Structure formats: C-alpha cells, structure tokens
Amino acid sequence: MQRRGALLGMPGGRKMAAGDLGELLVPHMPAIRVPRSGDRVYKSECAFSFDSPNSEGGLYVCMNTFLAFGREHVERHFRKTGQSVYMHLKRHVREKVRGASGGALPKRRNSKIFLDLDTDDDLNSDDYEYEDEAKLVIFPDHYEIALPNIEELPALVTIACDAVLSSKSPYRKQDPDTWENELPVSKYANNLTQLDNGVRIPPSGWKCARCDLRENLWLNLTDGSVLCGKWFFDSSGGNGHALEHYRDMGYPLAVKLGTITPDGADVYSFQEEEPVLDPHLAKHLAHFGIDMLHMHGAENRLQDNEIKPRVSEWEVIQESGTKLKPMYGPGYTGLKNLGNSCYLSSVMQAIFSIPEFQRAYVGNLPRIFDYSPLDPTQDFNTQMTKLGHGLLSGQYSKPPVKSELIEQVMKEEHKPQHNGISPRMFKAFVSKSHPEFSSNRQQDAQEFFLHLVNLVERNRIGSENPSDVFRFLVEERIQCCQTRKVRYTERVDYLMQLPVAMEAATNKDELIAYELTRREAEVNRRPLPELVRAKIPFSACLQAFSEPENVDDFWSSALQAKSAGVKTSRFASFPEYLVVQIKKFTFGLDWVPKKFDVSIDMPDLLDINHLRARGLQPGEEELPDISPPIVIPDDSKDRLMNQLIDPSDIDESSVMQLAEMGFPLEACRKAVYFTGNMGAEVAFNWIIVHMEEPDFAEPLTMPGYGGAASAGASVFGASGLDNQPPEEIVAIITSMGFQRNQAIQALRATNHSLERALDWIFSHPEFEEDGDFVIEMENNANANIISEAKPEGPRVKDGPGTYELFAFISHMGTSTMSGHYICHIKKEGRWVIYNDHKVCASERPPKDLGYMYFYRRIPS
Description:
Layout: H1 18-25, E1 59-62, E2 68-69, H2 74-81, E3 85-95, E4 128-138, E5 143-146, H3 155-166, H4 176-181, E6 217-220, E7 226-228, H5 241-249, E8 253-256, E9 267-269, E10 274-276, H6 281-286, H7 311-317, H8 342-351, H9 355-361, H10 365-370, H11 380-392, H12 402-411, H13 424-430, H14 445-458, E11 472-480, E12 486-493, E13 496-498, H15 508-523, E14 534-536, H16 538-546, E15 549-550, E16 555-556, E17 561-562, E18 565-571, E19 577-582, E20 585-587, E21 593-595, E22 598-600, E23 605-607, H17 636-645, H18 652-660, H19 665-674, H20 680-690, H21 711-715, H22 727-735, H23 740-749, H24 754-762, H25 771-779, H26 783-786, E24 802-812, E25 820-827, E26 830-835, E27 838-841, E28 850-857
Parallel strand pairs: 13-19, 14-22
Antiparallel strand pairs: 1-2, 1-3, 3-4, 4-5, 6-7, 6-8, 8-9, 9-10, 11-12, 11-18, 15-18, 16-17, 19-28, 20-21, 23-24, 24-25, 24-28, 25-26, 26-27
Helix pairs in contact: 8-14, 9-11, 11-13, 18-19, 19-20, 20-22, 22-23, 23-24
C-alpha cells in the first residue's frame, strides 16, 4: 500500500515544522515552475478523460507542464515524465443548510470558492453550495500539503501555486459568455430621449424603411425607425441605412429586431461604436409597444440552443410537445453546448456510432494513451480516443438513483443529473488555425464533417484509417455536344450531395396559396399564416442528381475550341457508409445565404445500384488528350505574382462558383489564390490536381516572404530537398495546361521563379522528357509527393449499393451561419435523439427534415 503523509503532518501525528516542509520539497524544486505568459494551465479537464475537480477523485495539475490528469491517469504521466509535484484540486458540492423554517439560509459571499471553474448549470444554486479544496501532492509517496500555506512553503512554491490557482481558463476564447459579460453599459441608456410620435412596432413583418430588406433590421430606440444594418461577418447583409439615419439625426442606440427575448437583446451604440448593454431596455421597448417578456428571438445569437427562429421547424425537429424518456449508459452520453458548437456535437455523435471508428480509437485506447506525446492535448488521436471513450463508456451518463427519483416525485420537482461531457479540449484542438471552426459562430456540419475526415486521414494510426468507410470514387463523363466524343475521369469523394428538386413539389397549389397569404399579411402587418412546407419526393432529388448538367466554358479537344458540353456523374465505387447531404443551402441574388425549408421523404432502405458507373461504352469515342492553348495577357505574370503576394484580393465570385460545386470553401479560396485569379475554370483544374492532398481543405496560410529575386519560391515556403520546386508553383503551371515534368524542369532551371519558368517554357517548345530527369524524380526523397509514376489508387471499400438509414443530422434556422443542429441515431432497434447534452428516446424522428443522412451498407 502506498505511503501517504498526513496533511501537514507525519505518521504518528507529529507536526511537520516549516523547515521539514522545505526539506521535503528541496529535491523537487527544479521541477516546479511559475506559469509564464502564454502557458496554458489546465485545471478544469483531464488530458485523457473528462474528469474535473467536480469528479470524485478530483484533478491533478502538474506543477511543471500545467497539464491536468484525473485519478486514473496521473500515475501514467508521473511514470512517463518523472514529474512528481502535482496540485490536487477538488470541488465539493453540498446541500445548503436549512433554516428553522425549512428554507435555505440567506445567501452570502462564499469565500470558499477560489477555482476559476464553471458552476454546474444542472444544480439549483439556491439549494447547493460549493467549496473548493487545493493541496500539493508529491509522488510517488503521495505526501499531501494543504493550500494555502504561505508561512511554511518556500516562496517559489507559494508563487507558483498562487499563479496556477489564479490563471484563466485556456478555453476562455471559446466561451461566448465572456463576450456578453464584457459588454459595457451605454452612457446614453439612463437618459435616452424617446420621441412620443405614436410609433408601434408589430411582432413580425418588419422591413427597412428605406429599402426592401427584411433581414438584419435595427430599431432605433429614439424615434422607432426600422432600418437595415451593414454587412457583418455572420453573413447578415444590409445597406447601412441604420448608420445613415444616425448620422442624419444623431439618435445613438438601436436594438436588433429578432434578437429580443425576456433575457435581453442585441443593442448597438452608434456614438460609442460598439455593442452595449441597456439596463432600461424593457422600458425603452415598451415605448414602442414591445413587451420583452413575450418576445422570442427570431435570429440566432450566441447560445444556439436557446433561440428558435422558426417555431414550427424547431418544434418538429426537437420533438417538442412530447414527453421524451431520458436515456443513460454507454453510447447515450450527450455533449454540452459551448455556444454554437452543436454542429460539432451532432457530427461526432454520428461518427462514434460507427463500429470502425469505435475500434480504431476506443478499441486502441491503452496503446494510444501510453504512446501519446508529452502534451496529449495537442495530439489528434489522443483527443479522438478521449472523446470516443467519453461518449461510449457510460461513465458520464448515469441515471438517478432510486432514492433521488422518489424524492423528486415527492417534491414534484426534477433534480437534473451531472450528465454529459464538455468537448472544450477537443474543439480547441480540431479547430485551431481554422478561422471559422475556431470562432464562436455557427458553422456548416457538412464542412466540419469533411474537415474531420481530413484530420483522420492526416493522423491515421499505422495502416488503419477508419475514414476509408466513407471514401468512394466518382466517375465523371463529359461529352462534347458537337462531336459527341467523351472523356471519362475519376475523383475521390466522401459524401453524396443531393440537389433539392423544388420543381417536383407535390403540393404546389398549397405553396402558391401560402405565399399569397404571407405577402398579404406582411403588407397589412398582420400575423403570418402557418408555414406550408414544400413536399419533395426523394426519387425526384435522385433523378436530379443523375441528370446531365451543362459545363460552363467547356473546351473541346476534338474541335480545338470552346463548345457546349454536358457532364454526368456516377459511382465508380460504393462506400461502406454513404453520407448524403441535402443541398438545402444556397445564395440569393444578394449573396445572402438562404435555406430551402422542404420535406423530403427520405427512405429507410436505399438502393442506388442503378447509379453504378459503366465506363467507356461500345461505340463511344474518347476526346483527344490535348490541353487547351494558354493565352496569357501581357500583364498576366505580374498579375499572378501580385495576387500570390496579396491574398486580400481573391476573386470571391470564382470562389463561390467552386463552392457551389460542393468543394470546401477553404479549398476554393486556395485554388483561386494559387491560380492567380485567372477564373473558376483554371482554379477548378487546381482543385482536381490537389484534392487528394491531406491539407486540401485546410485554410490558406501565408509563410513569410523572402527576397524579390526568389519571390515565387518564398511565397510557397522552402525550396525543397534536392532543388525540388514547391508543389504549389508546379500546380499553377500544370493548371495552365503544361505537362508536370515540363513545369518541374522549367522551375528547376530558373531557381523556382514562376515568371522566369513561364518564359523558359515558351522559349523551349521542343521540350522532351529527359529519361535521367524522370529517374531522378523517382529517386527523390520526396518521391511520395511529386512522383506520379504508377500511383497507388485511393483505398475504397467497394460493394453493393444497397443501404439502411441509421443516423441523420437536422438543422433548424435560416442558414448555416445560424440556428441549431440535432442528431438522431438508431440504436438497439429504436431511434434516439441527441440534442446537445440531452439524450432521449425519440418518439417521432423527423426523417423528412434532415440535412445530412448516414446510411450503412446492407451485406448482399
């Protein structure tokens, strides 16, 4: 049995003197550090589990690395690193002492709380109180020294302990609450002038007084004018009429319509040029006939699980109005919402319901944890395993004990359990360096799914790659309409994007009548009619997917000229798990994201064998393998180089054209950037060349610049081993139609200068492949990147195209930039709803309103 020192004492009860404490710590002093600026101090979550100071065993913070470990994992860190001094943190939760009348004693400041931790929202603060405890623990003997102990501890240890206890959470930027807490009170709020002009604001049907916009509308709190805002990062657009009105009239405060709830609203001060708090907002709104207590937000704010922009959609998808039975145990653990993190939670619940992912990570837990790097918080496989174990183990999803249930029934109240896990560490890692996922804004679940697949590919465990189950090959057949000749190509994909066939709606008459009634209600400022949703047959969407589509700017190699072309897509292989995305989101004429609110009768059993690719058919003639001629304007080279140096001028219209094809947004931006704004067609060629690369969907990053003499090379990073030119510059030249080897040889002959390489190519039209050059390429240390001789094809798990639905993710809201995501998964023969931390048996799974559907192959 391990020996433990008594708290501030020795065995036998003899009190340890101050000198004895110092003597005990002397051998360990070199390992004790004071946190510096930039150090991440983890004191709320274990690196390997979701244990916290609230857990039974508390949390151990290493006084050297400032990593935290639960009781089950601290010994592993001690054995691996030899770090022996840890600060043990424990938060005790107790029921408050009752007064003589039976009620809780009056509240008073609790000086026993000193940890910068979140309080448990599931516990009523009127009934419970917290007490924090901290002590130093010295391994391997587990000597314990209570804190604070300023008089008896060496000064360095006291300073280090103080710094750890007062340090801020490393996840502070992820917490949306901090934004709201930092909002200042407007200096105009107390004495705001409000005109008695008889203006009354209706509950809906708002429109800008100076234009026809019905989104991003702001109510001026002085005169009641409703005007549009400007274009913001969250894609809410406007023409800036609210700001113009302030400049004309000088009225300082405005509230955003659609954000008003009983808890507050978004208020902006034009004079102070920042969001503010208005302590008298209820009074100011009542002046215009708005009762805050009866208002519900109509647009998404920070907490996406509290705002319901479309009541009918929210109620149906969340199965409101039905008594849902909570589910507990392994596989029924929820994920707490960090503020617009539901897109991540829904995708991860679906991912870890797949056996291949369970085996790859949770099945290999001992090996992954034992061989994790010294900082496991920055290791993808460790964090995936931690999350998977948290979701599947059942440790964080336990039902209330029978005595608590009886007490709840007797008191006719519900005492929530400590269930669900907070994915802060996981989100921080998988979203780092990504400008969108690292923010607190709502994101597209489909984009995050592809981002996750990319991370899995890049961090595969040996030869095991669970994302293989999603990968399939798409055969694209392009036909020249004039010559009827064809070209067949293959590409890799991970999901099937299904268009919404709006023209095939089966309730067109109802839709027309609803639209007329809605417009009339808006004009007359009456309540809107009950929503009528378009009903689209799934077969029509599948038919739209398989139909030929026109190819813009098609260049026919048979005609050596531009011509009309059509493209059809088929499955060259069927994946083991088919992910189907319904393309509900599009862009309006004003580039504001919009959503098709439709009902599609998605099948439980899916057969797409008729979409199997057939390859070149008898009687078909292939298009010649000739690249289009490159016509480069006089200023093209300068423009290319300027574009590469300044990424702020990326042609967003080309980016959106590519994004509409279904490619990740960041990949589209890189494609347009690295092809010098030469149009969507050239950028599309870049995408085809690079879509197999592991960082294909990663954000565009710009390394530091070198001298002007090697501008081309410096833009793309180091020159590479053995004078190997940067892959990005090679891609630019090959996307212009030149051979790959020709591009590499030109760059190597010109010291990787893009401009000189183009001149070299035009001055060497007689270029022929050099055999020695090819051999040198194959022997290059980077041959796995640059060699294309007999490439290994992508790993696919082909089989029959018959599938069964087992999960789907639904979205509520008007665009991917707002709203809320929920996941339904079929487990043990019944549907289960995962709504953030709440996990319940589903009564009416809304399969017709989903956004992403997960199908598993039915064995033949």
